Amino acid sequence: MAPSSLHVASELYPLIKTGGLADVMGALPSALNRLGAPTRILLPGYPGVMAAAGAMTAITEWPNLFGGGAARVLAGHLEDIDVPAYVLDVPGFFDRPGNPYLDDNGHDWPDNARRFAALSWTGAELARSLDPRWQPDVVHSHDWQAGLIPAYLAADPAPTPKTAIAVHNLAYQGVFPGDTFAWLGLPASSFSPEGLEFYGQVSFLKAGLAAADRITTVSRTYAQEIQSVEQGCGFDGLLRSRADVLSGIVNGADYDVWNPATDHRLPRPYGAKSIDDKEVAKKALRERLGLDQVAEGPLFGVVSRLTWHKGLDLLFAALPVLVERGGQLALLGTGEAGLEAGFRASADRFAGQVGAVLGYDEELAHLIIAGSDVVLVPSRAEPCGLTQIYAMKYGSLPLVRNTGGLADTVVNADAKAIAAGTATGFVFNLATIDALAGTIGWVCDQWQDRARWRSMQQTAMAMDFSWGRAAGDYLRLYEEMVA
Ligand code: ADP
């Protein structure tokens, strides 16, 4: 019997999403189930989750969980989600619309430590047979929101399931004031540099990194990079000391959601054999963003959180070159106020060549991935990155920096790869404005050779990043853990 696993996370596409974590949770557990490994998920009861939880039943109730008031754990099936689920329903913590971590002013909710300690506690209880009918062999925590689970289980003298923690982004560490520790319910010995203490504060992610049996991250290159001072975000020493249990598995893409041949969000679906129909999406995208219908250079697309980590300040600074070369930009994103203002101003300054929508829009995200000639991901750090993987399937060539999962998924169009017919995109090394601007210029040169471009599109579209492979790698890991 394949090992069973419980996946605990704070996001799940399509119910609650701020980034790639939601896409992974929307696909990996069902891919594991398809491989015959019984897999379940635990989520917080955000409004979007509760709206899909009508058919679920309470298996336990607590009068006051970590100060959030009445709590219930629901079990059963969420509407339209094919994986059995548990939901932690604590209205005092999770009945808040909008971004799951931030209030309307963009500040962290002041009770985030309590909200996600409650989630972790519940994950640990499920591991300890809170549900008399099901107990997992492995509990896989995703990111800091579930980071305390391995610490809770490690502190339990009774035998418990194995634990793993998945790092989707090391930069988000769940750091809270030191006095948080007093009510977490962990043994005093955990508040140490070997445990969750982080310069006098507590880090929920560090708790997981220190206590879990295994650490996973979402690409092989990122697994290496986070052991370096530059990309270790203060945890590099800990990660080096745990290198023997750290592994990288590149994310898959959910081709039920991201496939140009079946994408109902496009004006006309297309495939490798009908790639001319990609033009229909391009035309619609230009119309939607107020871009000219004719341009000398390629149309570059961005769908991203607007942050420094994503390197979008570099793109902002390189925009004059993109525009000068006759390129166009279609950008969708939300994030740092300075970047939002910058791209808004660029859309005015370069009207017809630059269009920016500053918001979250699933529909438009698909149109940009499909309608662009090039999808830009100039990240300083990128654990895996998904938009470059989606882009390839849509015949939109990715332009990415040589880091993390970007390095693992895109084959640069250098002379050797072109000759071998393996090139799928464009890769630059240094996180500098000049390097990005130079690469944009190079891509504009390549755009002139349409036959070569077409052949790269065919190679990119034939790449297979479906979840089956990644899920197989996770399954082998779980088998090792329980052996
Ligand atoms: P991260 O998880 O760091 O944000 P990923 O590339 O792994 O980056 O995943 C980003 C996911 O979020 C993709 O599915 C992308 O399409 C989506 N996304 C990001 N920003 C937006 C937005 N403003 N509107 C719609 N989808 C978005």
What does this 3D model show about the protein?
The protein has 18 helices and 18 strands. The protein is of the alpha/beta class. Strand 13, helix 10 (about 310-325) and strand 14 (about 330-335) form a beta-alpha-beta unit. Helix 1 packs across helix 18 (about 465-480) and helix 10 (about 310-325) runs parallel beside helix 11. The radius of gyration is 23 Å and the shape is globular. It binds adenosine-5'-diphosphate.
Quick synopsis:
With 483 residues, the protein is α/β, with parallel strands linked by helices. It has helices spanning 20-34, 47-50, 91-94, 112-127, 149-154, 204-211, 220-225, 236-241, 278-289, 312-324, 337-349, 362-371, 387-393, 404-409, 415-420, 433-447, 450-462, 467-482; strands at 5-8, 39-44, 57-62, 71-76, 85-89, 138-142, 162-167, 175-176, 197-198, 201-203, 214-217, 246-248, 299-306, 328-335, 354-357, 374-377, 397-401, 426-428. The N and C termini lie close together (12 Å).
Summarize the topology.
Blueprint: E1 5-8, H1 20-34, E2 39-44, H2 47-50, E3 57-62, E4 71-76, E5 85-89, H3 91-94, H4 112-127, E6 138-142, H5 149-154, E7 162-167, E8 175-176, E9 197-198, E10 201-203, H6 204-211, E11 214-217, H7 220-225, H8 236-241, E12 246-248, H9 278-289, E13 299-306, H10 312-324, E14 328-335, H11 337-349, E15 354-357, H12 362-371, E16 374-377, H13 387-393, E17 397-401, H14 404-409, H15 415-420, E18 426-428, H16 433-447, H17 450-462, H18 467-482
Parallel strand pairs: 1-2, 1-6, 2-5, 6-7, 7-11, 11-12, 13-14, 13-16, 14-15, 16-17, 17-18
Antiparallel strand pairs: 3-4, 4-5, 8-10, 9-10
